[in-house]
Specification:
Elements lengths: L23 E3 L1 E2 L2 E2 L15 E3 L9 H7 L10 E6 L7 E2 L2 H8 L7 E5 L5 E6 L2 E7 L2 E6 L4 H8 L9 H10 L2 H18 L5 E9 L5 E2 L1 H5 L8 E9 L3 H13 L7 H13 L26 H13 L14 E4 H16 L11
Parallel strand pairs: 5-10
Antiparallel strand pairs: 1-4, 2-3, 6-8, 7-8, 9-10, 9-14, 11-13, 12-13
């Protein structure tokens, strides 16, 4: 159906008249079918079904085919919650769904194997945590460590009060991406409160009056034209890589669904503060070329979180909003960076540590 948000064809309602489940869906939590909510007087508890009284979580494809579709302005998804390095109980999936889950992230996120029951599959989470939306299934992978420790790993050296609110928000909302955006917004606020980073930068421009030195080579490249004058000069500016990298991440974060209003206002204030900085499309790996000194060291926490944002905001819906379920973190890499940074700080001045790869 054109314009319908469901990735599968809409299925006509086939539920009997008077059925207590006029809007039904599968809900799977911790690898098990969820306990159904009662649908009012006379409702019958049917295993694996959850009455959809609001907007989420709709059916797996086979459940939808058997029970009938639900007209809703939101996307239809079934939710599967796993824990890092744990597997689920056998789940009813189609071959296409099993294949989509197994190939997620190039096979790095999950592995799917056939269960003993025909048509059922066992899903195992690897070392990635977060959430991802695939073939109508929203997979949430929770870390095996306490949530407060996850945010400690994300940024070494911040005070506990700088990340404990985000840990609590993640615990309530289940979605990691809005919590990371909240963390990024607060960290950037602390960074910019110390003042926008300025530095001297060599510039080349054509001006109506000479500024700095005459760029002879560029001026001679246009013989017969005295104005504009090719100038070479040094400018004290905020239009630097560090600021443009932050601005790119702030702009992307504003398109994330589910961000708290207070954090969205913070992001808007950051855009105003960075208004004089040019808009540049950065790759996450661009940050690897930055050398931190005493002048820009205070930008490091915000830039690292900006890299996470830029590296993971990849899937968008038709309206341009980034889907909150599309954010995965490599816990092995996160822990390695945490240990490296702690050792670097402890051994500063005695030993230089650099991460491999």
């Amino acid at each position: 159906m054109p314009g319908h948000p469901h990735p599968f064809p809409r299925i006509a309602r086939r539920t009997p008249l008077g059925s207590p489940w006029p809007r039904a869906c599968w809900g799977i939590q911790d690898g098990r079918p969820s306990v159904p909510r009662q649908g009012g007087a006379g409702a019958v508890a049917t295993p694996g079904l959850t009455q959809d009284v609001g907007s989420v979580p709709p059916p797996l494809r086979d459940a939808a085919d058997a029970l009938g579709g639900v007209e809703s302005p939101t996307k239809y998804v079934a939710r599967l919650t796993l824990q890092e390095h744990r597997n689920s109980e056998p789940l009813p999936l189609t071959d296409a769904q099993a294949g989509a889950l197994n190939s997620a992230g190039g096979g790095r996120y999950l592995s799917v194997e056939p269960a003993e029951t025909p048509g059922h599959w066992q899903v195992t989470a690897h070392n990635y945590v977060g959430s991802i939306l695939l073939d109508g299934i929203q997979v949430l992978v929770r870390p095996k460590i306490p949530l407060r420790n996850l945010f400690l790993l994300l940024e070494v050296g911040l005070r506990e009060q700088d990340w404990r609110d985000e840990a609590a928000f993640y615990e309530r909302s289940l979605h990691l991406l809005p919590a990371i955006v909240s963390f990024f917004a607060r960290t950037t606020e602390t960074t910019l409160a110390r003042g926008l980073y300025h530095s001297y930068r060599e510039r080349h421009d054509r001006l109506v009056a000479l500024r700095g030195r005459l760029d002879v080579a560029r001026q001679l490249a246009r013989p017969g034209s005295a104005i504009p004058i090719a100038c070479q000069f040094t400018e004290f500016t905020a239009d630097l890589f560090e600021n443009s990298y932050l601005k790119a991440a702030v702009s992307r974060s504003l398109r994330v669904a589910g961000v708290q209003p207070a954090d969205r206002q913070r992001l808007m204030r950051h855009l105003v503060a960075l208004d004089d900085v040019g808009d540049v499309r950065h790759r996450p790996t661009d940050l690897d070329d930055v050398t931190f000194t005493r002048l820009n060291e205070h930008y490091k926490p915000a830039l690292r979180l900006a890299r996470l944002v830029l590296a993971n905001l990849t899937l968008r819906d038709n309206l341009g909003e980034v889907e909150a379920p599309s954010f995965m973190l490599d816990m092995n890499q996160l822990f390695e960076r945490f240990v490296t940074e702690r050792l670097r700080r402890a051994l500063r001045g005695r030993l230089d540590l650099q991460p491999l790869g």
